[in-house]
Amino acid sequence: MVRGRRVMCGDHFAPREVGVRDGKIAAIEPLGAGLQGARVVELAEDETLLPGLVDTHVHVNEPGRTEWEGFATATRAAAAGGVTTIVDMPLNSVPATVNVAALEYKRLFAQQNAFVDIGFWGGAIPGNKADLRPLHDDGVFGFKCFLLHSGVDEFPHLEADEMEEALAEIKTFDSLLIVHAEDSRTIDRAPQPNGNVYENFLRSRPRGAENIAIAEVIERTRWTGARSHILHLSSSDAIPMIRSAKNDGLDITVETCPHYLTLLSEEIPDGATAFKCCPPVREVSNREKLWEGLIDGTIDYVVSDHSPSTLDLKDLGNGDFGVAWGGVSSLQLGLSLIWTEARRRGVGLERVVRWMATRPAERVGLRHKGKLSLGYDADMAVFAADESYVVDAQRLNHKNPITPYQGKVLSGKVRRTFVGGREVDYETPTGRLLGRGQA
């Protein structure tokens, strides 16, 4: 049983007692009701009880590239950041999760190293249309595709017509296609990103590449009537057409990430390849429009796109943006990052939780996660909203100590995390592997 003066109840906070039995929330009563438990957790005056966050965009990279991350380190980092459920991307593991055999192989590595609950995405690539339904039946939460080179050769991209075929196929069993939306031809014609000047890299991934690709996703979704989702929105230019598509009744959603909502291209130093990601961090005016789209509901939720690599792959010695791996590691920091920026804008913690727990859980069909509610999984984070700390990459649980947030002062710290009613001790993995049908 957990007792505290600030427990999240729907869209507000109230003094409550939360009873947990067999990993589920069994009772929620006013503080003072006198619920009894084999174990009682008393929140401190400065602590808030939140539902565990749900991060549906995580690259764990195991098996095959475990030196980049791995289930043990990724799920420890998730728990330390209040994330109690992740959904793992089908790349950059080897083999990529594009058939049932690869999914089952990945589960072998995950099952003994899960400190939080883990679900899996399948991949849609050229030639695997016949594998989509079997993957769906084996429990993936949907399918990811790229509209340009993915960065790894074992996960080739789809052309727009192939994406439409995938949408038509997954509609037959009501799955979800999630799309890395950048147009390959636009990027092929853009300037090369070589060198240590960030502005050159930014020009190599123009907003137009996103805008064209997102327009393709919208129209192919319209033509097929399928369900789609746009990953890691970086270009604010696309917000009006996404809003229009939603107004037209299309079943389309969109996410963005902490790096697009907190970082600015104008402040990225030369050679600082820790900041490189694709699509890129853009200008301050773009960031402000992304916040507007998030607040007005056009952007549905916020996830990490945790895309780690080894230090060598970040080309730290030369700082060449054309050579360095593109990806930001932020799985452990997401809640603090968004809360720091949100409170500065007068946005309440309840909205942050909606963006980072409730909405992603709803979109992918995690019906018992993302809320503190009767019958839901007892996934909880004890959060000290007013505590501040300085980011130190060496003290994070990520396998490789590199982050663009090094030295930043952030507000809000996760003090304890519970998954299925058990407190994460970072030594005994008690997380579960989730299949869509059981979730």
TrEMBL record:
Keywords: Hydrolase, Metal-binding, Purine metabolism, Zinc. Pathway: Nitrogen metabolism; (S)-allantoin degradation; allantoate from (S)-allantoin: step 1/1. GO terms for biological process: allantoin catabolic process; purine nucleobase catabolic process. Its EC number is 3.5.2.5. The keyword Disulfide bond does not apply. Residues 48-424 form the Amidohydrolase-related domain. SUPFAM superfamilies: Composite domain of metallo-dependent hydrolases, Metallo-dependent hydrolases. GO terms for cellular component: cytoplasm. InterPro entries: Allantoinase, Amidohydro-rel, DHOase/Allantoinase_Hydrolase, Metal-dep_hydrolase_composite, Metal_Hydrolase. GO terms for molecular function: allantoinase activity; cobalt ion binding; zinc ion binding. The keyword Ribonucleoprotein does not apply. Homotetramer. Belongs to the metallo-dependent hydrolases superfamily. Allantoinase family. This is allantoinase. It comes from Kocuria tytonis.
